[in-house]
Automatic annotation (TrEMBL):
InterPro entries attached to this UniProt entry: DUF6230
Designated name of the protein: Cholesterol esterase
Entry superkingdom: Bacteria
Name of a matching Pfam family: DUF6230
């Protein structure tokens, strides 16, 4: 075993941490583009009701694992209470097609989410927006919104009977009350 050359170690560590910090701040502010590959498998997301603060909707392009680009709507929520949450996806396995479904057991008990982003192909819902702004600069609505692109923003929102055909769902924090996970050929999709 050799001796650690602490001076050399520190001389390499400090600039590396500085560069990492600059990249982290740049990604958080949207100045440095961040991308990740999606599986390419669509999924359904539904909820009986969502209510919360900080709603945004704007167009973006996502790339699936096969390299194909897809135009989607980025739906963002700063914080929300979600009632009757359901997510399902049809998967092909060596044993045939199966449905994987995640849902809440008690639709009357809300799940809490912060920093929610959904990449959606289509959205169906009944909405009630507070302080709605149409044609808002998409850059002000989320990290992946482009300056000058069309966007919709609202300070407060209540959305009911939600059905989303989606590529991806990401949450900064998800607190799900009574999660139920199932897989099977006879497991129903969310809608």
């Amino acid at each position: 075993m050799g001796d650690v050359r602490w001076r050399r170690f520190v001389l390499m560590l400090v600039p590396s941490l500085g560069a990492l910090g600059v990249l982290g701040v740049g990604m958080a502010q949207g100045a440095v583009p961040v991308s990740f590959a999606l599986s390419g498998r669509r999924m359904q997301v539904s909820a009986d009701r969502l209510s919360g603060q900080g709603f945004g909707l704007y167009p973006v392009v996502v790339r699936s694992a096969d390299g194909e680009r897809h135009q989607v709507l980025s739906l963002t929520m700063r914080s929300a209470a979600v009632y009757g949450l359901c997510q399902s996806s049809v998967v092909d396995t060596p044993l045939g097609r199966y449905v994987v479904r995640l849902s809440t057991r008690d639709p009357a008990r809300p799940s809490q989410v912060r920093g929610l982003t959904i990449s959606a192909r289509s959205i169906e819902a009944d909405v009630d927006f507070g302080s709605l702004v149409l044609n808002k600069d998409a850059r002000t609505l989320g990290a992946d919104g482009r300056a000058g692109d069309y966007g919709v923003g609202a300070l407060g929102f209540t959305v009911e009977h939600v059905k989303v055909d989606s590529w991806m769902v990401a949450g900064g924090t998800f607190q799900v009350t009574g999660l139920k996970v199932a897989i099977g050929r006879d497991v129903p999709t969310c809608f």
